[in-house]
């Protein structure tokens, strides 16, 4: 009797599945939840809400929680086999490669015109190639400086640093504290530099900008400059005197910060979830940290940066109208609202969305990031070779950490990237 | 005087024996410490692992890390994929090796030695080059992220040694048995299956274990040929480390331990065969 | 009567010999087919691809470009760097395994009880999957919380938790060597032990009676007696370590600034990170050429030694 019942149940479920999948257009979406479980909750809310409010389109969601470089590799492997999803969430830096492979579809054929008009021309223009829109900004991720209030107090720092020089001063005061009572080393300012994680080299750009240098100007590489040399020399000193741990990736750096042994480092607002998960104090750890925009050379300037995440549509997508609905929803106020609610603090490039969602900000950390957003630079990533250049920069910083002469390192990396971009 | 010499000889031998046991014990502790540490960490809360000093003995062990792994369908899926692809590789390479081994062992095959040495030299070929071509083929055939694709790819890794291993086991079975069977009127197929094959059971088991071990261990082929939900355990573990477990070393270690478990279990029960298999070819050859 | 019988036997003999060959060939045919399809053809295609421009775009249509790929990998001595790393990695890994494995095998062979127990215990690292070995050791050498640094600190070898294994080129190489030796040592030990156990004790005792000491007996009697096992083990270990990818890639990713980038890691990165199959195949071809030359040389030398011993 039990056997028959369970067989019937199984059959019913099977039939239900078949019944369900037959009628409604299904849009496959690739979404990656990066590092922390905090993202999982947010995404569940976003896509759960979509399922409730949209009976006419079904989203088939595939979430990756792995190194995002793996996400890109997955897409690159899927591209030649035409097994790409309909919509994917990708970093702006990956768009050139996907474009080169010829697998991106024109989003203006799917997304409603009103939604596209909601973008500022500056935001959307970067992704207009040959009259086609190959990507739409999903959200911008701004980087600002996190700091540990307890360590600041211990080191006797009463005011937040307003210039980059003051940042370095504070960093040295903190690392002068030496070790904590359990024997863990205390670091002042963490500069990420790991070769096992790909594409984290651009996190030194704030330092370059703070000293007046830059990576690229008007299409040519301007790494070999006095200003950048000053930055590189200071970075070498930072590693040499132990103010920063060497060779840590962003993930390991977050872990270190969560244990309360790191004074400052710059990161995304959404990583507060990582800190909470990694700290033994749990959620209460938030009370012990704060954020401020990464200051530039002079007061009032900022050298933070935005790492844009965009949505692309692949040419394997069949249901353009359904895809358009999904695109509109994902870039719309509801989704960004959820992200703000879950502490992800993602900024949008859609004017109406920003007006709706960010009309008032109470949380101090979120306020700091909104503040940073107004001075943040964009990453110069829309070049086919940017990811390789990025790795070259990571390797050059490794060389600085190993004590090599900054002038030689800077010259070498500048040559390498100039050659790369010339291809 | 002889008595005295005997006594000092005996104590010398005793001391030497004790020293040897001590040395072995010390070496065992050093060699197995990482495994012990993996288990200790997997039973600790992750926060305890990012603090100094590390605790060498669990004062209050927790199983929440293991629970996390076994209750996540995604991870169980990785196990399934690994089992299916490793199992498939074992079956395929066993089928090929058992008959090929008999052929090489008993029959005058044209160019036998050349063929054998070519097959052995396969191990020198860079696997990446094989993978590049396989990847291109599979793209055309649509075999990326399929079990058959990975099974075929893994077979290239294990085939040479499987054939040589089985062949050396066949070589230990005297030809007189073949002759006797022939005289009794058995056909060659019957001879092979009913008479000779049962005698090389240890060799078959050894090849099964060896193949399973290597297919389970494969990371290179699986990382490219299996994507998304078809990922195998090795790729899953590597990615998870770079992914959500960056701050969760406890979870990482428990995943690592569970990932090792199948092989360690296989080994513990079939140790005898594995060692016999490992040493068969080398010692006699 | 006898003539008929003789003729019948002749006939049957002839028939048997012909179908013997065919039967044998049928038996090995599946193996050869698999070998040709899945190994030989990809390798030959790979050699061809090494002379072509082959990226993800034109994955099925490589375009011939002469030696351009080879030029690219020799740029700035990149290939020699990978080659050198591979050689030093192999040398130290195989060397350490051999010495330590021999030590363990000798210990276990010295007539102690519980040999099987210890052997079973020691073999555990070999059964742990390479990926697990990589992340386990990565956790062990973690700078801030790794237990290895802690032990070194307590032993006063380092002053604080300040030894960064993955950021220093030599420490990174040391780390991957340790991890690989840890995993492969049991295999070497088991093989050498089996070899040692097959050595005729009578020979060793005769040497001792003749006045040789332990070391001499070991060097001149035992080693030559287990030469076949030694050669097989070392050769297998060298070829396997040339291929070693999983542990290196997951521990250091090619290491600080290419310091641990061996040929296999370089080939993989070229193929599946930069998606440049042509240059990756070029690295593979040079690798095969090297090992081919090495095999020829070692065959030549082993012939010579063979003559000496006999």
Summarize the structure.
The complex is a heterotrimer of chains A (423), B (285) and C (310). Chain B has 285 residues and is mostly helical.
Task: Please provide a written account of the structure.
The complex is a heterotrimer of chains A (about 425), B (about 280) and C (about 300). Chain A is of the alpha/beta class and about 425 residues long. Chain A has helices spanning about 1-25, 35-55, 70-80, 95-100, 115, 120-125, 150-155, 165-175, 205-210, 225-240, 250-260, 270-280, 320-330, 335-340, 350-355, 365-375, 385-400, 405-420, and strands spanning about 25-30, 60-65, 85-90, 130, 130-135, 135-150, 185-190, 215, 220, 260-270, 290, 305-315, 375-380. Chain A folds into two domains: about 25-140 and about 305-375, D-Maltodextrin-Binding Protein, domain 2 (3-Layer(aba) Sandwich); about 140-305 and about 380-420, 3-Layer(aba) Sandwich (D-Maltodextrin-Binding Protein, domain 2). Chain A is about 45% helix and about 15% strand. In chain A, the strands form three sheets. In chain A, strands 1, 2, 3, 6, 7, 10, 11, 12 and 13 form a nine-stranded mixed beta sheet that branches. In chain A, strands 4-5 form a two-stranded antiparallel sheet. In chain A, helix 2 (about 35-55) runs antiparallel to helix 14 (about 335-340), helix 11 (about 250-260) packs across helix 12 and helix 17 runs antiparallel to helix 18 (about 405-420). Chain B is flat, with a radius of gyration of 25 Å. By secondary structure, chain B is mainly α. The longest helix of chain B is centred in the N-terminal third of the chain and has 41 residues, at about 1-40. Chain B is about 80% helix and about 0% strand. The model of chain B has no long low-confidence stretch (mean pLDDT about 85). Chain C has a two-stranded antiparallel sheet. In chain C, helix 9 (about 200-210) packs antiparallel against helix 10. Chains in contact: A-B, A-C, B-C. Chains B and C meet through helix 1, helix 4, helix 5, helix 6 and helix 7 of B and helix 1, helix 3, helix 4, helix 5 and helix 6 of C.
């Amino acid at each position: 009797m039990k056997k028959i019942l369970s067989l019937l149940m199984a059959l019913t479920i099977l039939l239900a599945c078949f019944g369900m999948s037959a009628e409604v257009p299904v849009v496959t979406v690739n979404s990656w939840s990066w590092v922390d479980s905090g993202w999982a909750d947010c995404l569940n809310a976003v896509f759960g809400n979509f399922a409730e409010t949209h009976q006419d389109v079904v989203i088939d969601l595939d979430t990756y929680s792995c190194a995002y470089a793996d996400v890109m590799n997955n897409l690159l492997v899927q591209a030649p086999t035409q097994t790409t999803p309909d919509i994917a969430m990708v970093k702006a830096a990956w768009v050139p490669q996907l474009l080169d492979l010829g697998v991106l579809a024109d989003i203006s054929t799917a997304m409603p015109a009103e939604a596209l008009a909601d973008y500022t021309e500056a935001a959307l223009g970067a992704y207009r190639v040959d009259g086609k829109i190959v990507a739409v900004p999903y959200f911008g991720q701004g980087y600002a400086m996190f700091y540990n209030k307890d360590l600041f107090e211990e080191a006797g720092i009463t005011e937040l640093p307003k210039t980059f020089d003051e940042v370095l001063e504070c960093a040295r005061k903190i690392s002068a504290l030496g070790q904590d009572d359990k024997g863990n080393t205390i670091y002042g300012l963490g500069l990420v530099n790991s070769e096992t994680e790909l594409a984290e080299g651009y996190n030194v750009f704030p330092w370059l900008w703070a000293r007046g240098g830059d990576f690229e100007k008007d299409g040519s590489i301007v790494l070999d400059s006095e200003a950048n040399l000053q930055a590189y020399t200071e970075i070498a000193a930072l590693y040499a005197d132990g103010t920063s741990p060497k060779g840590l990736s962003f993930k390991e750096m977050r872990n270190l910060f969560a244990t309360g042994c790191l004074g400052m480092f710059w990161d995304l607002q959404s990583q507060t979830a990582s800190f909470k998960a990694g700290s033994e104090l749990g959620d209460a750890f938030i009370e012990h940290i704060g954020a401020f925009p990464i200051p530039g050379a002079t007061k009032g300037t900022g050298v933070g940066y935005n790492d844009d995440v965009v949505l692309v549509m692949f040419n394997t997508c069949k249901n353009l109208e359904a895809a358009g609905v999904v695109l509109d929803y994902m870039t719309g106020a509801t989704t960004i609202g959820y992200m703000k609610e879950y502490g992800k603090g993602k900024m949008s490039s859609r004017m109406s969305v920003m007006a709706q969602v960010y009309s008032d900000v109470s949380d101090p950390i979120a306020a700091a990031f909104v503040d940073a957003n107004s001075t943040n630079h964009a990453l110069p990533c829309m070049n086919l070779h940017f990811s390789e250049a990025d790795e070259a920069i990571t390797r050059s910083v490794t060389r600085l950490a190993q004590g090599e002469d900054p002038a030689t390192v800077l010259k070498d990396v500048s040559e390498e990237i100039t050659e790369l971009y010339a291809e | 005087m002889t008595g005295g010499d005997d006594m000092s000889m005996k104590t010398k031998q005793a001391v030497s024996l004790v020293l040897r046991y001590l040395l072995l014990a010390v070496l065992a502790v050093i060699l197995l410490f990482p495994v012990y540490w993996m288990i200790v960490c997997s039973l600790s809360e992750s926060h305890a692992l990012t603090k100094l000093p590390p605790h060498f003995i669990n004062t209050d062990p927790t199983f929440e890390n293991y629970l996390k792994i076994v209750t996540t369908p995604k991870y169980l899926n990785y196990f399934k994929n690994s089992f299916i692809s490793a199992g498939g590789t074992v079956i395929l390479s066993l089928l090929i090796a058992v008959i090929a081994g008999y052929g090489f062992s008993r029959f005058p095959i044209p160019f036998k030695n050349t063929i054998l040495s070519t097959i052995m030299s396969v191990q020198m070929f860079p696997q990446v080059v094989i993978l590049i071509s396989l990847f291109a083929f599979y793209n055309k055939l649509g075999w990326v992220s399929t079990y058959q694709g990975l099974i075929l790819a893994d077979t290239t890794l294990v085939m040479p040694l499987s054939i040589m291993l089985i062949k050396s086991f066949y070589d230990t079975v005297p030809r007189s048995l073949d002759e006797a069977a022939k005289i009794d009127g058995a056909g060659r197929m019957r001879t092979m299956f009913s008479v000779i094959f049962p005698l090389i059971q240890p060799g078959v088991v050894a090849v099964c274990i060896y193949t399973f071990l290597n297919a389970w261990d494969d990371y290179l082929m699986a990382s490219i040929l299996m994507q998304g939900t078809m990922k195998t355990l090795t790729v899953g573990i590597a990615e998870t480390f770079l992914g959500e477990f960056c701050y969760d070393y406890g979870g990482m270690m428990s995943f690592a331990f569970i990932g090792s478990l199948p092989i360690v279990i296989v080994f513990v029960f079939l140790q005898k065969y594995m060692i016999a298999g490992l040493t068969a070819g080398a010692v006699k050859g | 009567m006898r003539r008929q019988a003789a003729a019948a036997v002749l006939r049957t003999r002839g028939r048997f010999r012909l179908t013997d060959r065919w039967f044998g060939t049928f038996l090995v045919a599946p193996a050869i087919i698999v070998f040709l399809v899945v190994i030989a053809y990809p390798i030959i295609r790979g050699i061809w691809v090494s002379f072509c421009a082959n990226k993800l775009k034109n994955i099925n249509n490589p375009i011939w470009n002469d030696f351009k790929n080879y030029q690219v990998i020799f740029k700035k001595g990149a290939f020699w760097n990978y080659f050198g790393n591979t050689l030093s990695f192999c040398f130290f890994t195989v060397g350490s395994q051999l010495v330590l494995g021999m030590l363990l095998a000798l210990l276990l062979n010295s007539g102690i009880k519980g040999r099987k127990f210890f052997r079973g215990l020691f073999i555990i690292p070999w059964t742990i999957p390479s990926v697990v070995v990589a992340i386990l050791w990565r956790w062990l050498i973690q700078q801030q919380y790794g237990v290895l640094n802690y032990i070194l600190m307590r032993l006063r070898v380092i002053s604080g938790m300040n030894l960064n294994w993955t950021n220093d080129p030599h420490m990174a190489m040391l780390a991957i060597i340790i991890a690989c030796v840890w995993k492969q040592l049991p295999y070497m030990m088991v093989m050498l032990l089996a070899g040692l156990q097959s050595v005729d004790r009578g020979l060793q005792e005769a040497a001792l009676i003749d006045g040789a000491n332990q070391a001499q007996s070991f060097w001149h009697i035992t080693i030559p007696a287990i030469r076949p096992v030694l050669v097989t083990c070392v050769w297998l270990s060298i070829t396997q370590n040339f291929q070693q990818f999983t542990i290196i890639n997951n521990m250091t990713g090619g290491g600080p600034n290419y310091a641990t980038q061996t040929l296999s890691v370089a080939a993989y990165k070229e193929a599946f990170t930069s998606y440049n199959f042509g240059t990756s195949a070029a690295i593979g071809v040079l690798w095969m050429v090297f090992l081919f030359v090495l095999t020829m040389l070692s065959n030549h030398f082993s012939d010579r030694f063979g003559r000496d011993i006999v």
